[in-house]
Amino acid sequence: MPRNEKSGPRATGNRSSTHQGTNDTLTVQRATDERHAVEQMELPTRYPLARVSLYEPHAGRRTWWFAYRCPVCSYGHRGELRRATDEESAKAAVQGVRRARCGPRVWLAVGKTYRGAAAGSEVAA
Ligand SMILES: [Zn+2]
């Protein structure tokens, strides 16, 4: 019986280990923590409080507007904030004592802001 013993050290081609740098992925997380916290303000008790919904203008439009259910007449009122340029200024413009459409003054406080669906809402000014 022929035995064939193959015993020979074969040098396997050693690849020089390529420099695979550890790519440190830097994940940047923007903490856009928008809280709709209505600040605890001193409410003038003589005016009924109305919670206002604020609406962002459509892309290309500029006018913010708001709507609320009137605490006086129980109907819905709405208004425009022509001077507002962003959410902050719109909030600042609508908050406070206003004359309701039906006559008496009401205290408006922004409850929720409805924004458009545009991701990031980065509008080129
Ligand atoms: Zn009213």
Strand ordering within the main sheet: 3-2-1-5-4
How much strand? Answer: 25-35%
> Helix coverage percent of residues?
under 10%
Mean pLDDT: 77
* Helical segment count: 1
Query: What's the overall geometry?
Result: rod-shaped
Largest beta-sheet characterization: 5 strands, mixed
Rg is 32 Å
Uncertain regions: pLDDT < 50 for 5+ in a row? none
Total number of β-strand segments? 5
- H/E element string? EEEHEE
Q: Give the ligands present.
A: zinc ion
| Estimated structural class | mainly beta
Task: Give the N-terminus to C-terminus distance in angstroms.
Answer: 91 Å
Name its key features:
single chain; 125 residues; mainly beta; 1 helix; binds zinc ion
Walk me through what this model shows:
The chain is mostly beta strands. 6% of the residues lie in helices and 26% in strands. It contains 1 helix and 5 strands; from the N terminus they run βββαββ. The chain has one helix at 87-94, and strands spanning 49-55, 64-69, 76-81, 96-99, 105-114. Strands 3-2-1-5-4 form a 5-stranded mixed sheet. β1 and β2 form a beta hairpin. The mean pLDDT is 77. Zinc ion binds at residues 70, 72-73, 75, 77, 100-102.
Question: Could you provide a short overview of the structure?
Answer:
The chain has one helix and five strands, in the order βββαββ. The chain is mainly beta and 125 residues long. It has a domain of 67 residues.
Topology:
Blueprint: E1 49-55, E2 64-69, E3 76-81, H1 87-94, E4 96-99, E5 105-114
The structure holds zinc ion (ZN).
Zinc ion (ZN) binds at residues 70, 72-73, 75, 77, 100-102.
